Amino acid sequence: MQTLPFLYRGLMVCLIVLVLIIIGGTIYGVFFHAIPPDHKPNKPTDDLRVSGQGQTFTGIGRLRVSTTDPQPGMVILFVSFTFYPEDKAFSEELALRIRDFRDIITDYIGSFSADELHRQGEEGIKAELLRRFNSILRLGQIEILYFSDFLIVG
């Protein structure tokens, strides 16, 4: 029976020591830790582009869209583009707009026949999709779209 109060006291001492270590580390980090000279807290987006730290946004995924032909064909495409994850607000907007991007692709591609899509060509389709994507974005713009898959069947 005597060991329980001793155990509780030991645990309480350990808890107090941990709290003191956490508080001490926080105070040291805030007041005594030097900020590196090259640290810029709010880099503008242009600096991010220059640094070449872009990543590929592939959140839209592979889409299969039916054409307007009497015997509907199928367009299979995978759209991606470069974005800068350091721009948190724009990255969040892109994540929230994935369904909108898919709807734009489906509505645009699905409004043409396979022959009309062939006549427009891949570059024409990319240009129009890019224009439509950028028209709904408020916190940044997409510079270039890439199709890693683009197949018109039918």
- Overall structural class, as computed from helix and strand content, comes to alpha+beta
Radius of gyration (Å) = 27 Å
CATH architecture of the largest domain: 2-Layer Sandwich
The N- and C-terminal alpha carbons lie at a distance of 84 Å
Q: Percent of residues in beta strands?
A: 15-25%
Q: How many strands, what sense, and barrel or not for the largest sheet?
A: 4 strands, antiparallel
Elements, N to C (H/E): HHEEEHHHE
Proportion in helices? 40-55%
Query: How many strand elements?
Result: 4
Q: Based on CA inertia axes, which overall geometry fits?
A: elongated
Tell me the name of the CATH class of the largest domain.
Alpha Beta
CATH fold-level topology of the largest domain: Tetrahydropterin Synthase, Chain A
In terms of per-residue confidence, which ranges show pLDDT below 50 for 5 or more consecutive residues? 41-50
Mean pLDDT: 86
Instruction: Count the domains.
Output: 2
Number of helices: 5
Structure commentary:
The structure is a single chain. The chain has 154 residues and is of the alpha+beta class. The protein has two domains: 1-33; 45-153, Tetrahydropterin Synthase, Chain A (2-Layer Sandwich). The chain contains five helices and four strands. It has helices spanning 3-32, 45-51, 88-96, 98-109, 114-136, and strands at residues 55-57, 62-66, 74-83, 145-153. Strands 1, 2, 3 and 4 form a four-stranded antiparallel sheet that branches. Strand 2 (62-66) and strand 3 (74-83) form a beta hairpin. The longest helix is centred in the N-terminal third of the chain and has 30 residues, at 3-32. The chain is elongated. It starts with a helix and ends with a strand. Residues 41-50 have low confidence and may be disordered.
